[in-house]
Amino acid sequence: MLSRTADHLFWMARYMERAENTARMLDVNYQTALLPQSAGVAEQGWQGLLSISELTHDYTTRYGGINPRQVMSFMVKDERNPSSILSCLRAARENARAVRGTLTTEVWETTNQTWLEFNRLLADGSLTRDPASLFEWVKFRSHLSRGVTVGTMLQDEAFHFIRIGSFLERADNTARLLDVKFHAVQSDFYGAADEKDNEYDFYHWSAILRSVSGFEVYRKVYRNVITPEKVAELLILRHDMPRSLAACMHEVVTNLKLVANEQSADTQRRAGRLQADLDYGRIDEILATGLHAYLTQFLDRVGDLGAGISRDFLVAAVH
Hints:
Blueprint: H1 3-33, H2 39-52, H3 56-63, H4 68-77, H5 85-98, H6 105-123, H7 126-129, H8 131-152, H9 157-183, H10 198-211, H11 215-222, H12 228-236, H13 245-258, H14 265-279, H15 283-289, H16 291-314
């Protein structure tokens, strides 16, 4: 496969996944903001959302102080923000258009229609009128895109690059979400947090779980009160949790093997080692060294992996 084609497929998938992840975080923040809470706690939630995407500086440069409506506008429809939902859906569509012949008609039409319909919804004022419904729509369209890809595409190299892009982006986002949300509790987390307001704790941890569709999963797996240690375990080490780091890395490694070439051995080794650390890791050992330190290292390794994939597969060789 041409590296240019692989590049477009990889980034098409990453941008669609990023749009969904942004919608998930905005939705949870919006719903949580409707609960009784102090102004400080509410502001911390919106600051955390910007921090996850590394957009705090860009936002404050343009808008100054934290304002929920301005943060939502910035993260949903600001064309100058490359991580806004609008920018992500446009980038997904442009990458899909560049490789139109590699995609099935259903995959292309789903991606194209998502872009056109999202613009119509923005023009109709959906963000102001009913933000929750708009975020749910974005999540649904991402689910639809993934389902149509799995259901209609030949499982060849094109399919594998789409999967690699999706799950690498998802792993990155889950790690960022965990890092920022645990940081909101204290500077680092080593397990057994101090007793605080239990009601706040419940809403804080359940909001994290809801942002990754993990609330019902948590109840099914652990059947007890929500504790930060178990939240971390579910979202880092559980292979049967679709958005966990372990599940994402399993998909990345599996699909990397299927597109391996003569220069990708080191990238595969790095990916395999990261997967092995998750396969055989224990949450008490992770917390003993500090969750922030662990997640920072994980994000560095995922960034490294993305650079390796780009080098091995996506950047056209100069002859």
